[in-house]
Amino acid sequence: MSQAALERAREHFGKILVPQLERIERMKREGGWIDYGQVKPIVIGTLGGDGIGPAITRVAENVLKDLLAAEIKSGKVVIRQIDGLTIENRAKHMKSIPDDVLAEIRKCHVTLKGPTTTPEAGGPWPNLESANVSMRKELDLFANVRPVRVPSEGIDWTFFRENTEDLYALGSQGIDVTPDIAIDFRLITTPGSERIIDAAFAHAKKTGKTRVTIVTKANIVKKTDGKFLEVAAKVAERYPGISWDGWYIDIMTAKLLDRARRADFQVFALPNLYGDILTDEAAEIQGGVGTAGSANIGKRFAMFEAIHGSAPRMVQEGRAQYADPSSMLKAVAMLLSHIGFAELGDRVDKALEICGQYERKVKLTGRDTGATGEQFGKYVTETVRDPRLKERWQAFVAKDSAKK
Ligand code: IPM
Ligand code: MG
To answer: Is the CB of 307 within 6 Å of ligand 1?
Structure first.
């Protein structure tokens, strides 16, 4: 190998470390969590995104507006639409989030975001960084919280996926050392691990859970995963009432399919890429990625979204209005809980389970043989408002458990 290639690789490695060292300093100085009880008005921004994004975001926004009508009227909550997070506009500005869009996002406390197209090498769009990844980094949304529930099986999982580090932090800054050697960089930091693991334990404590499961591959990936595991042991000391265990990602993916044991898991904390993969698997167990929502939470900002993509084919075939908005409605439930409406958020969760998994009076087929997303949204809102919601939900869960 030529000396020049080696020198270039060394220089590259040095260069990518500088912003990361600065980032760690910022993390160490960061303040505490925002208290929404003290904020008035709470500003919620909505971002339609691409493909079926605008259609399902509109449904979710309408449900949110309906449910928060009194708070909007009293001025406690403001909902505003933010345009421009489309692939066309991002390509035009050659930015994964155009500056003016980012400025608008920063004026909101939380956002509800539809799926956005993620460009890839060889695709029709310039190969920009994913808008999701950029927003997570820009707003330091370090906790990707993904709940998965199958009440009739006793499954009630919450995943705390680290959202700003791991292979994602330097994912577009790898290097071809020579034409034959490609290297990407994986980064895990002590403060970055600490804040996500602490968030997982704090959630367990707050919600009366007793166990946190840490997922790594620390036997093979010794430095980075090793650090994550070491930090977990330290954080756990602060939570004496909560037990914890470490699992490797390979056996963890298997255990999620183990019907005899899977309901024993409660809260998970894991690095970014393992979390990306494991949460898709978990969502599938709940009924598919279309049923799962995702919260991207930082100490100051938060963004709530579907976990699936933008389904451009549905738009090309003129079927966007028939797209299933469940994942965005799940995001609404998480958003509500996050900004202090936990009881309402819980009602939306239960209504979604009734409407999507059990009762299914309004059926979505993804085409004109079924209902529109808007009709489904109305069905969910009506169900949320039903004074007998909890009994209705309980009855379905009991019936389903008896079948299994
Ligand atoms: C997710 C998605 C994103 C990710 C993509 C769209 C960048 O898969 O939110 O899980 O990899 O994080
Ligand atoms: Mg994913």
So the answer is: yes
Residue nearest to atom 12 of ligand 1 (CA): 276
Q: Cα 147 to chain center, whole Å?
A: 9
Give buried/exposed letters for 151-168 (b at 16+ CB in 10 A, else e). Answer: bbbebbbbbbbbbbbbbb
pLDDT value of position 151: 87
Ligand 1 pocket residue status of 130, Cβ below 6 Å: yes
224 CB near ligand 1 (under 6 Å):
no
**Cβ pair 21, 11 in contact under 8 A:** no
| Consecutive H or E run containing 80 | strand 77-82
Distance 149 CA to ligand 2 centre (A): 18
| Beta strand pairing call for 243-248 and 211-216 | parallel
Fold exhibited by the domain 33-141+298-404: Isopropylmalate Dehydrogenase (3.40.718)
111, 305 contact by CB (below 8 A)? no
The model carries a pTM of: 0.92
**Crossing angle for the helix pair 326-338 and 342-352, nearest 10 degrees?**
160
pLDDT in tens, 219-257: 999 999 999 999 999 999 999 999 999 999 999 999 999
Query: Is the CB of residue 327 below 6 angstroms from any atom belonging to ligand 1?
Result: no
| Ligand 1 atom 8, closest CA | 276
Least confident of 154-168, 280-294, 328-342: 280-294
Mean pLDDT value of segment 341-352? 96
Residue-wise pLDDT tens digits, 132-155: 989 999 999 999 999 999 988 999
Structural domain spans, the chain: 33-141+298-404
Beta bridge partners of 110: 44, 302
- Average pLDDT of every residue of the chain: 95
118 lines ligand 1 (CB under 6 A): yes
